[in-house]
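SAMPLE LOG
Freezer: B-3
Tube label: C17
Construct: single chain, 107 aa
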Amino acid sequence: MDKDFGGVIWTKHALDKLNERGISQSDAWATWRNPEQSKKARVPGAWVYYKTYGSQKIEVVAKKNPSTSSGQAGEWVILSVWSRPVYGKQGKIEPFWKFLMRKIFRG
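STRUCTURE (predicted):
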């Protein structure tokens, strides 16, 4: 694993998680570079990027370092990476009262 892969900085934590979770660095980089969706992360200034590969959704947390005093653009830093399984299309959730009535009357 390369701490400067793809022109971004990879934290030790992110590299450890890639290895631990069996995620390729190129898939994580592609998720960050061309996400299907993104949202603000809990960490101030960071974003979570999402992309689905088959039955796995990879999530990458990244943050851009501030610009330097010389005006040079800040570098992107990959903070963490994980994946989660993707299941079939999720339907509408049944209200609890309906579930209860169904269980009572169907025995």
